[in-house]
Specification:
By secondary structure, the protein is mainly alpha-helical. It has three domains: about 1-160, Rossmann fold; about 175-260, Helix Hairpins, CATH 1.10.287.1770; about 290-485 and about 500-665, no CATH class. The protein is about 65% helix and about 5% strand. The protein has 30 helices and eight strands. It has helices at about 15-20, 65-75, 90-100, 115-120, 125-135, 150-160, 175-195, 200-205, 210-215, 220-235, 240-260, 270-280, 285-330, 335-355, 355-370, 375-385, 395-400, 405-410, 420-430, 440-450, 455-475, 500-515, 520-535, 550-560, 570-575, 585-590, 595-600, 610-620, 625-635, 640-665, and strands spanning about 1-5, 40, 50, 80-85, 105-110, 125, 135-140, 260. The strands form two sheets. Strands 2-3-1-4-5-7 form a six-stranded mixed β-sheet, sandwiched between helices. Strands 6-8 form a two-stranded antiparallel ribbon. β2 (about 40) and β3 (about 50) form a beta hairpin. α15 (about 355-370) runs antiparallel to α22 (about 500-515) and α20 runs antiparallel to α28 (about 610-620). The termini are far apart.
Length: about 675
Amino acid sequence: MIFALAGNQNSGKTTLFNALTGSKQHVGNFPGVTVDQKAGEVRGVKGAEVVDLPGIYSIRPYTQEEIVSRDFILDGKPDGIINIVDATNLERNLYLTLQLLEMRIPMVVALNMMDEVRENGGSVNVKLLGSLLGVPVVPIVAAKNEGVSELVNQAVLVVKKRMLPAVQDFCPDGAVHRCIHSVAHVIEDHARAIGVSPRFCATKLIEGDESLQERLELDQNEVELIEHSVLEMEHETGFDRNEALADMRYTFIEHVVGEAVVKCRESREHRRSVAIDRVLTGKYTALPVFFGVMFLVFWLTFNVIGSSLSDLLSTGINALTALVDRGLTAYGINPVVQSLIIDGVFAGVGSVLSFLPIVVTLFFFLSILEDTGYMARIAFVMDRLLRKIGLSGRSFVPMLIGFGCSVPAIMATRTLASDRDRKMTILLTPFMSCSAKIPIYAVFCAAFFARYQALVMIGLYCSGIVLAVLVALILKGTAFRGEPVPFVMELPNYRMPSPKNVLLLLWEKAKDFLERAFTIILLASIVIWFLQSFDTRFNVVSQSADSLLAMVGRLIAPVFAPLGFGDWRIATSLISGFVAKEAVVSTLSVLLGTGVASLHTVLPGLFTALSAVSFLLFTLLYTPCVAAVATLKKELKSGVATVGVVAMQCVIAWIVAFAVYQIGGLV
C-alpha cells in the first residue's frame, strides 16, 4: 500500500511525513526544503509506505520538483494520495487539490494548522468541505501530532475500499466545460491505455503539456481536433487557455470556501511578521541587518563559543593520543604500527574531530535563522541584487545551502523553474564556502590572524560571493544570455524555532561530520601516512622528504610556487582535499608530525601571512570534493561539462591566489 504525500511548499508536508513515519527528515521554515522524493513506512500500519514528494503549487512540468511529483503519481501508480493543505490559506492550497482530484486516485485531504485557524477566530465545516470536494477531509495539527492517527485510518480505508473522488466537474456548463469534455472524448482510449484519468489528460493537453501529448501517442488529426476545441474556448471566454482553466478552478474554490469556511481574522503572527519585515526587508535596513546578523554569527562561532569548545575537545584528543602512545610504547608494539596509529589515525582523524564544535555551533545559529523564517526574507532581499547578475532571488536558497555543503545545495537547484537559471546556479554554488573548509580557516586564522578571526572568516565568505558575482556577470553575457524567470516565493510568518528541528539539524550535521572523519578522512590519513613513511622500495624512511609522497608532491609543487606555497607537503594536502576538504588539515598534521592543537605553531615555518592568505583563497575557490563533483555530473547530465566546471574552478582559484600573492608582494 503506497501513499503519495503531496502539497504546497511550506504547508507542513515534511512535518507530517515525520509524524507518519517516525522519520527525522529536516524541516525548514522556508519553501523548497524537499527537492527529491523520500519514502518511509507508516507507523502502525503493516505493509504501508508513504512517499514525501517535493512541495509544489500546481502540476505543471516547469520545475524539476513539479516533474518529480507528477512523474511519481503518473508512473509510480500510488494506491492513494494524502493531500496536505494549509487551513489558514485554503484558496491557494486547494488549486493543487483540484488538479489531484482530476487524476481519479483515492485521496484524503489533511487539513493542517487547524490550531492557528482556531486561535485566529476561524473555523472550517470539515464535513461540508469533504462533501463539496468529494473526498474525505481530516483536520490535523502535524507539528503537535494531532489528528494524525485519524488521518492514517481514513487513508487506509479510502485505499482498501477504492473510494475515488466523487466530484469531477468543477464547472457544470460553459465553454471551458465543453472544451474539457470534447478533448477528454478525443483522447479517452489513449488515456486509459496508459492508466491515467482522461479528464486529467484533457486539462493537461489544454494547458499545452507536450510531454503528456507524446506519452499519449496522439495522431495529427487528434492534435488538430484538440487545438480547434481550445481555440474555440479561448474565443468564447476571452481568456487564453491557462487563464480559462485557472478561472474555472478558482471560481469553484471560491464557492467551496464561501460555503464551508469562516475566514480567520488577521493573525497575531502575521501582524508581528509585517512589523518585523519593515526592518528586516526594508529598502535601507535589510542589507545592513543581514551583514550584522552574519557578523554576529561568525564572531560567536569562531571567537567565543565554537573556538572555546574546540580548544577543549582538542585538549582531550591530545591527552588521549599521549595516553595511547605511552600504552603502545609500554606494550612494545612494532614502531611502524605505532606510527600508523599515532601519526596516521590519531593525527589525521583527531585533527579534524577537534573542529566538530565549530561546525555544530555555526549550524546551530543557521538553523535558528532558517526555522524563524528569516532565510526566506534573505532570498527576497537578494532578488534585486541577483537580477543584476542574471539570476532571481530563488537562486539564493541553493547558494545559502552551499555554505553548509555543496551536495544538497546543487540538488536544491531543482526548485528553480528555468533550466538556464538552474545550470547557472549550479556553476556558482561551489564558490560558496562549505562547512568542510572551516577546519582549514580555523587553523590558519589561529596561526596568522588570531586577533581578527571573525573578520577574516567574513572576508573569505564574502570573497567567494564576490567571485561568484563576477563569474555570473561573465556567464550572463556569454553562455547564459537571457533574463531570469520572475521571482515568486512565499514569505512564511516568523515562528519561534522548534527545539526538535534545531537539534535534529545539529545531529544530522554532526553525524555527517563524524561519518566523514571515520571513513573518507580515516582512509585518506592512512594512505598519506603510508606514502609518507615508505620509499619506492617500500623501506621505512627516516625523513619524510625521502618518501613516495615527497616524490609525488615535488612533481606538482612548482605549480603552486608562484602562489607562495611551493612546499611539496602543501601541494599534497591540496590533492587530498579533493577527497574531502577537511583532509587538508589532517594531511598537514600527518606530514608535519604534530597534533592539531600545535599545528598553528608549525605553519609559520611554511607560510608567511601573505602566502597564508593566498592559500586560504585557493582552498576557498578550487574544485569541490569528489562527492560534490559526482552530484554535479548527475545534475548537469554531462561528464564533459562536469570536467569543465572543475577545471574552471581550479583555474579561477589559481589566478586569484596568484594575483593576491604577487600584488600583495609588490605592496
